[in-house]
Amino acid sequence: MNTAYFKQDFAASVVVFLVALPLCVGVAVASGVPAELGIVTGIVGGLVTGMLPGSSLQVSGPAAGLTVLVFEAVHEHGLPMLGVIVLATGLLQLGMGALRWGRWFRAISVAVVEGMLAGIGLVLIAGQLYAMTQSTAPSSGIDKIAGLPRMFADSLGSAPAVASLLLGVGTIAVLVLWPKLPKRVRLVPGPLAAVALATVASLAFALPVTKVTVHGLVSAIQPPTPSGFAEVADIGVVTTVLAFTLIASAESLFSAAAVDRLHDGPRTDYDKELMAQGVGNTVCGLLGALPMTAVIVRSAANVQAGARTRASRILHGAWLLLFAALLPAALGVIPIPALAAVLIHSGFKLIPVKGLLALWRGHRGEAVILVVTAVSIVAISMFEGVLIGLALAVVKSAWEASHIKLEIVDKGAGPVQAHLSGNATFLRLPKILDALEAIPQDRPVELDLSRVHHLDHACRTALENWAERHDAAGSSSARVTMAV
Question: Which GO terms describe its cellular component (predicted)?
Answer without folding.
Answer: membrane
